[in-house]
Amino acid sequence: MKKKPLSKLYLAIIMLFLYLPIVYVVVFSFNDSRSLTHFTGFSLEWYEKMFGNQMMMDAIYYTVIIAVIATVVSTIVGTITAIGLSKSRRLIKESITQINNLPMLNPEIVTAIGLMLFFTALNIRLGFITLLLAHIIFCIPYVILSIMPKLRQVDDNLAEAALDLGCTPFKALYKVIIPQILPGIISGALIAFTMSFDDFVISYFVTGPGINNISTYVYTSVRRIDPTVNALSTLIVIAITAILIVVNIVPLIKERKFKKHEEIY
Asked: What are the residue ranges spanned by the domains of the chain?
């Protein structure tokens, strides 16, 4: 059945709406003037100024280091919690699952204000530590949610069989259970990294003086014309595009090699 021309037009409009702003930012990151409306010539000036801007470099550093640490910690905690929940009683499991869903259902502004008041009540100075703790806290539910469906597919008899064959509980965990739920762990880690890297609302409320990630830095920069933000955005787009290409191409290459291997033998 042929697609209707109207549906193709609708798809084209949606694609333009999604990607045209990104293309606009990329093009004007190479503009040789500060104008964001008129392209006057090609230049790498804003990339040079971006790498020479210490505040922006600090923002990139804090963004990456917090995202990496938050991803590692939330993945470990979320994996252990999800495995524990899968072995818990139904009432406990459902209760904690509902509690785990609350941060994702709540508006971010509610979570942000709650965390800010919590840190203030404990007399914890807002800064790098509070920013890192906040990111770990809101990343854990996403990891748990990603792993739970995989755990439901795991046969409980596998772990019991491993224990009967002489494995210790810890060895059964990383030799039997974790390999079975590894795709869920990886997807949870990727979601956690993305959420941490991209977060603005919570970061804005729990960060302190001199500590900015990319989102809060960009927010303070949009009040004035700063083309270096376009350069930074372009590099992020290029990095994400490269990662997506690798992630999608590598499995295809492995699949082709596997098919060739099957044809030979």
From this structure: 54-229
What CATH superfamily is the domain 54-229?
MetI-like (1.10.3720.10)
Angle at 242 between CA 239 and CA 244, to 5 degrees: 110
Is the entire prediction scored with pTM above 0.70?
Answer: yes
Question: pLDDT tens digits for 232-247?
Answer: 888 888 888 888 788 7
pLDDT tens track for 163-201: 777 777 777 777 888 888 888 898 899 899 989 998 899
